[in-house]
Amino acid sequence: MVMKPKTSRLPSAGIVLMALTLSCILGIQSARAETFVVEQITDVKASGAQKMFRFAPELLRLEVGDEIEFRNSIRGHTVHTIPALWPENAPPIAISYKPNATVRFPEPGVYGFKCQRHGVYGMAMLVIVGDPKKIDDLGERIDAAKLSDDAKQKLKSIISNAGLTP
Ligand SMILES: [Cu+2]
What we know:
By secondary structure, the protein is of the alpha/beta class. It has helices spanning about 15-30, 50, 140-145, 150-160, and strands spanning about 35-40, 55, 60, 65-80, 95-105, 110-115, 125-130. Strands 1, 2, 3, 4, 5, 6 and 7 form a seven-stranded mixed β-sheet that branches. α3 (about 140-145) runs antiparallel to α4. It holds the Pfam family Copper-bind.
């Protein structure tokens, strides 16, 4: 195999500088807040209402300051705070009649969401921001929340699938 001399392939100082600047900019961007997308699904092919209406994904783990773009809060879907699963200092959220809405999460903690209309069928989700201090009592808080049995079951399966139950 014939090797080409490498010296002729050395990039010019200008290109090296440009690459360094670019990687620097990209580095700063990746350290910034991220935006995640949560869809609200109506799956007409699903068997039963418990599977028909759902958030996707149903669990998100964020860094403090990250954002979620909630999509499809239309045709009955909404995004509403579950008060029993909400950090004390965080303002409640109520999104309806919006194809998309972006929410920022500056407070660490556990955030529970339900759809106002389909929560009764278990349309609920969890967002965990940062490293919340109290997470081991999550199961008890779900039990105590004013939610339908289907929603409680959904939230409990989310935390057990994620290995968050003690
Ligand atoms: Cu809904």
